[in-house]
Design brief:
Blueprint (H helix, E strand, L loop, with lengths): L1 E5 L8 E4 L14 E6 L2 E11 L14 E2 L8 H13 L4 H8 L2 H4 L8 E4 L1 H4 L10 H11 L5 H6 L4 H9 L3 E4 L19 H9 L6 E7 L5 H14 L3 E5 L7 H10 L4 E4 L5 H13 L4 E4 L11 E6 L17 H12 L2 E6 L4 H8 L4 E5 L10 E6 L5 E2 L2 E2 H13 L3 E5 L8 E4 L16 E3 L4 E3 L6 E3 L12 E4 L3 H11 L4 E4 L7 H13 L4 E4 L12 E6 L3 H4 L6 H13 L10 E6 L5 H7 L3 H15 L6 E9 L4 H13 L7 E14 L2 E10 L2 H17 L7 E6 L6
Parallel strand pairs: 8-13, 8-14, 9-11, 9-12, 10-11, 12-13, 15-27, 18-25, 18-26, 24-25, 26-27
Antiparallel strand pairs: 1-2, 1-4, 3-4, 3-5, 6-7, 16-17, 19-23, 20-21, 21-22, 28-30, 28-31, 29-30
Helix pairs in contact: 1-2, 1-12, 8-9, 18-20, 21-22
The structure holds adenosine-5'-diphosphate and zinc ion (ZN) (2 copies).
The site of adenosine-5'-diphosphate has 14 residues, from helix 9.
C-alpha cells in the first residue's frame, strides 16, 4: 500500500510514502492529513489516493509518521476540484490544497472544539439536580437540547465561571460541532418579487448542476433574487456559498444577508485573523453555517451540504488571483457547481464577454432584470466633447456648471470618477526637460503633494519631492497630467460644499469607507471624487450627477480587454446615479465623442457594445473564442527572459497540438518593473482540450530547461491582464 500525497511545496507532482507502521488500509481515505518526512523536516500533507505501486523505486520510499485525521477533511468533490484546478491552472497541487485548508490545519493542529456538550455523567443527572445553583441548572437544561456555542450560552446568561464550575464537576466538556442542519427560518421577510425576479428564481432547478447568468443594472433587484434562492436552498437543508468582490468595501452586503436569515452566516475574507478564518472555515465545513459569504479564495471552502453557489458582480477583476496560484474564482465556481451537482448563479449589470458568450451558446441560462426597483429612472448619458475646451484640473466649464447646479441649486450629491490617484502623474524640469522616473521600473513617478513625495505606482519606490532638478539644478519644476488630489484641491477652492476623495490613499481601513457611506446616506450636498473604488457595488441614494473626468485614458489601453473594461466601468458608475432621485445625469468627458462605444452607451445599449466587442474578439481569435495563456518570465538581466522563453518555444513547438499557436516572446507593455525585465510567450488555442495539452507541454519544457539562476517564470491560464 502506497500513499500518494499533496505536499505544500512548489513542485508540480505528488509524493509517495509508505503507510505508518500498523496502519490499516481501510481506515485511510483521500482528504486526510498525514505527517510525513520531507528532506530533513516533517510536514503536513494531504492524502490524494492509496495506490498499489509507487512511482519511484520502492527502496527509496519513506514511511509517513502519523495520520492526523480520523475522517477526511474534504469531500470527494472538493478533492476533485483541487485536482482539476491544479491541472487546469498548471499550479503545484500541494499549493492548491493549501487554498482549501486553513493555516492551523496545515500546521498539523486538530479541528478545534468550539462547542460545549454534556458528558455521560452530565446526561445521567436526575431531573431537578443542581436546582439550587440556578445558572448551572440553566446551562444544563440548555445543553440537554444539544451542543451549544459559548456565545449562545452567554446570551442566555451563562457565564464562563459557571462553565468552569460544571467542567470541574465533570458534567460538561468541549466538543467539535457535529453537523447540524442550520435553520431555514427567516429573520425578516423579503418584499414580494417582481415578475422578472420570480421568473429567474423559478428557473433554478435544485439538486442538479445548472448555470445561470442574471443580468440587471444596479438596483434592479439581483440581490433579492439571491436571497430568495438562498432561502429555498436552506429549506432543502443545504448551504449556500456566496462570492462577492471585496467585503471591506461592501460591509452592507454582508449585513443584508445576516439580517434576512436566522441561520449563522460565516464570513471569509482577507481581513480576518487566522483564528477567525479557522472558525468560519469550520462552521462551513461542519455545516453549522447555512450561508458562507466570502471573497475570491472562499470558493475553496469545503461545505458539508452544498446546495447553491452565487457569484455577485461576476465581471469583477478581483476574482482573478494575480500572483502565485493564478485562478479565476468565477470559473472555479462554475466547475465546483458541476462537481457538487448544484446550481450556480452569476450576477452582474455588465457581464463579462466570456459569460455573455456562454449564455449565447446556451451553456448558461440568461435571465434579465430590466427595470430598477422602485421605478427609478436610468440616468441620461451625455458625452462632453473636450476638443479645444478650457479645463480646470481636468474639469470643463460644462461639467462644472452641472456640478454647481447639483450641489448648490438641487442640493444633491455629485459623484466624479477619475482613475488616477495622486496629484499628477509626471514631474518635469522646466529648464532642461528632466522627468522624474522610477529607478526600478519603466515608469514615471507620481507626484503626491499632500505627503510631499514622489511615488511609483508599480513598485514600492518612494522619495521626497525634490526642490530642484537633479540634472541642472533648476528650481522650476512643473507637474503634468491629472490625479485625484489635484481635482480635489481645485473643487475645494471653488465650491462651498464638502469634497470627499475616495481612493486607496484616502481610504485606508474599513472605517474610512464606513464614514463615506454615512456621508452618502446622510444626503447632504457634497462632491464624492474617486477612483475605481467607487464602482464597487455601493449605493449612493442622493447622487444626481455622475461625471467621468477622463474617459480617454480608459479607451486607449494597451490591453485587449481595455474597451470591455471601459464599457463596464461607465455603466457601473452610471448605475450609482439617482436611484431614488429622478432625472439623474451622467456626463462623460472625452476627446472622441464619435467613438461608436460612446454612441451605444448614450443609447443605453450595453448589449450592442458587447456584441460589437465580441465580433472583434471573434475575428482575432481572442477570448472567449480562443483560449489564451501566457508563459511569463522575469529576470534581472534584460535578455535572459527572452532567451529562456525562446528556448521553451523551440522545444515545445514540435509537440504543440495543431489548434494552438505560440506568439512571441514579446516584452511586457512595461518591460521593466521593480528592477526586473518581463517577457511573455503567448499561446492561443481554439479548443480547451488543446489549451490544456499545450499548458502541460509548456510547463514541462520550462521545468526541464536550464535557466539562469535568478530568472523566474510562471504560467497564467486565462489571464485577465496581459500588460
Ligand atoms: P441589485 O442587487 O440589483 O443592486 P437589490 O436587490 O439590492 O438590487 O435591490 C435594490 C433595492 O430594491 C433594495 O433596496 C431592495 O430591497 C429593493 N427591492 C428588490 N426587490 C424588490 C421587490 N421585488 N419589491 C420591492 N423592493 C425590492
Ligand atoms: Zn533640469
Ligand atoms: Zn517603480
Amino acid at each position: 500500500m502506497v500513499l500518494r500525497v499533496a505536499a505544500p511545496v512548489p513542485l508540480r507532482r505528488p509524493f509517495d510514502y509508505l503507510a505508518p507502521e500498523g496502519q490499516r488500509q481501510g481506515s485511510l481515505s483521500p482528504g486526510m492529513r498525514l505527517r510525513v518526512p520531507f528532506g530533513k523536516r516533517e510536514i503536513t500533507a494531504i492524502l490524494l489516493e492509496v495506490v498499489e505501486e509507487a512511482s519511484v523505486d520502492a527502496e527509496q520510499l519513506r514511511a509517513a509518521v502519523d495520520v492526523l485525521d480520523s475522517e477526511s477533511l474534504l469531500s470527494s468533490s472538493m478533492m476533485a476540484l483541487c485536482n482539476w484546478s491544479s491541472d487546469y491552472y498548471q499550479h503545484p497541487v500541494g499549493e492548491v490544497f493549501s487554498a482549501a485548508i486553513p493555516k492551523a490545519l496545515r500546521e498539523g493542529r486538530g479541528l478545534s472544539e468550539t462547542h460545549w456538550r454534556l458528558t455521560t455523567r452530565g446526561e445521567g443527572l436526575p431531573e431537578g439536580a443542581l436546582s439550587r445553583a440556578r445558572s448551572q441548572a440553566k446551562a444544563l437544561s440548555l445543553l440537554q437540547c444539544g451542543e451549544q456555542l459559548p456565545e449562545t450560552l452567554k446570551a442566555e446568561g451563562v457565564s464562563s465561571a459557571v462553565l468552569r464550575e460544571l467542567t470541574s464537576k465533570g458534567l460538561i466538556e468541549r466538543c467539535r460541532a457535529s453537523a447540524s442542519i442550520p435553520s431555514a427560518e427567516l429573520e425578516q421577510e423579503g418584499p414580494p418579487l417582481g415578475s422578472e425576479q420570480a421568473q429567474a428564481v423559478e428557473a433554478v432547478a435544485w439538486g442538479s448542476f445548472s448555470s445561470h447568468l442574471l443580468q440587471g443594472v444596479t438596483g434592479s433587484g439581483k440581490t433579492e433574487v439571491y436571497l430568495r434562492l438562498i432561502a429555498a436552498c436552506l429549506e432543502r437543508g443545504e448551504q449556500a456559498l456566496v462570492l462577492i468582490p471585496e467585503i471591506g468595501l461592501t460591509p452592507q452586503t454582508v449585513k443584508r444577508f445576516e439580517g434576512r436569515f436566522k441561520s449563522p452566516v460565516a464570513v471569509l475574507h482577507s481581513g480576518l485573523s487566522d483564528g477567525q478564518r479557522f472558525a468560519a472555515w469550520q462552521a462551513a465545513q461542519a455545516g453549522t453555517a447555512g450561508i458562507v459569504i466570502g471573497t475570491r479564495s472562499a470558493i475553496f471552502t469545503p461545505l458539508a451540504r452544498p446546495g447553491l453557489i452565487v457569484v455577485d458582480e461576476e465581471h469583477d477583476g478581483s476574482y482573478k488571483q494575480q500572483d502565485g496560484f493564478r485562478y479565476s474564482a468565477r470559473d472555479v465556481a462554475v466547475k465546483r457547481a458541476q462537481l457538487e451537482n448544484c446550481p450556480v448563479i452569476l450576477g452582474s449589470a455588465t457581464p463579462s464577454l466570456e459569460s455573455l458568450e456562454n449564455a449565447r451558446r446556451g451553456r448558461y441560462e440568461h435571465h434579465f432584470l430590466r427595470g430598477r426597483q422602485g421605478g427609478g429612472e436610468l440616468p441620461m448619458l451625455e458625452t462632453v466633447d473636450l476638443r479645444s475646451l478650457h479645463l480646470n484640473a481636468g474639469i470643463s466649464d460644462y461639467l462644472m456648471a452641472a456640478i454647481r447646479d447639483t450641489v448648490e441649486i438641487q442640493k444633491r450629491q455629485a459623484l466624479l470618477f477619475l482613475n488616477r490617484r495622486g496629484f499628477a502623474p509626471t514631474l518635469q524640469c522646466h529648464s532642461c526637460g528632466w522627468v522624474a522616473g522610477c529607478d526600478h521600473c519603466d515608469a514615471r513617478l507620481t507626484v503626491h503633494l499632500r505627503k510631499r513625495c514622489l511615488r511609483c505606482h508599480h513598485c514600492a519606490a518612494q522619495r521626497a519631492l525634490p526642490s530642484h532638478c537633479p540634472d541642472c539644478g533648476g528650481t522650476s519644476l512643473l507637474t503634468h497630467g491629472l490625479g485625484t488630489e489635484q481635482t480635489e484641491e481645485f473643487l475645494r477652492s471653488v465650491l462651498r460644499c464638502p469634497v470627499h476623495r475616495v481612493d486607496s490613499d484616502a481610504m485606508r481601513g474599513v472605517d474610512a469607507m464606513q464614514s463615506l457611506l454615512e456621508v452618502a446616506h446622510s444626503e447632504e450636498p457634497c462632491v464624492i471624487l474617486g477612483t475605481q473604488m467607487l464602482t464597487k457595488g455601493h449605493h449612493f441614494p442622493a447622487v444626481q450627477l455622475v461625471g467621468v473626468i477622463d474617459a480617454d485614458a480608459l479607451l486607449y489601453s494597451a490591453d485587449f480587454r481595455g474597451e470591455e473594461r471601459m464599457a463596464q466601468l461607465v455603466v457601473q458608475v452610471a448605475g450609482r446615479a439617482g436611484r431614488e432621485s429622478a432625472g439623474g445625469k451622467v456626463l462623460i468627458q472625452t476627446h472622441y465623442p464619435d467613438d461608436p462605444l460612446f454612441g451605444a452607451l448614450r443609447d443605453g445599449h450595453f448589449e450592442s457594445i458587447t456584441s460589437s466587442l465580441l465580433e472583434k474578439r471573434r475575428s482575432s481569435g481572442q477570448p472567449p473564442y480562443g483560449q489564451l495563456m501566457l508563459l511569463r518570465s522575469d529576470a534581472r538581466n534584460e535578455r535572459d527572459g527572452e532567451a529562456f522563453l525562446r528556448a521553451v518555444q523551440k522545444e515545445a513547438k514540435p509537440y504543440l497540438p495543431s489548434d494552438c499557436q505560440l506568439i512571441g516572446p514579446l516584452p511586457s507593455a512595461m518591460p521593466r518593473r521593480a528592477g526586473r525585465f518581463r517577457w511573455q510567450l503567448w499561446c492561443l488555442s481554439s479548443s480547451r482540450r488543446g489549451a490544456m495539452t499545450a499548458a502541460r507541454l509548456l510547463v514541462d519544457r520550462a521545468e526541464t530547461l536550464k535557466k539562469p539562476r535568478e530568472l523566474s517564470w510562471f504560467i497564467d491560464v486565462d489571464p485577465s491582464d496581459v500588460l
